[in-house]
Hints:
115 residues, mainly beta, four-stranded antiparallel sheet
Amino acid sequence: DVQLQASGGGLVQPGGSLRLSCAASGFTFSDYTMSWFRQAPGEGPKWVSSIGKAGGGAIYADSVKGRFTTSRDNAKNSLYLQMDSLKPEDTAVYYCTKQSDYGSRGQGTEVTVSS
């Protein structure tokens, strides 16, 4: 079974940083692109970023471009999201997914940006 578990969320002040991690299991991690989505309270899920199988070619939503950086470590079956210059509108539950399949998400991690 595909298992994806995000971690690293928390409460941070505007302008701060967080690094999210995603542990993957149940599939050959290095064979798949991976993505991050987020869902803010009262809203539907939104795509944040995707990264290629070998770690190159990361792409980002306009709302996070220049502030967020996606990376991966295939040896550790792990995906990362470095979030800098955080804004209150970044507040959401963040999920990692296999490819861009939101249905594959597992446990998310909550990020709250507030003073």
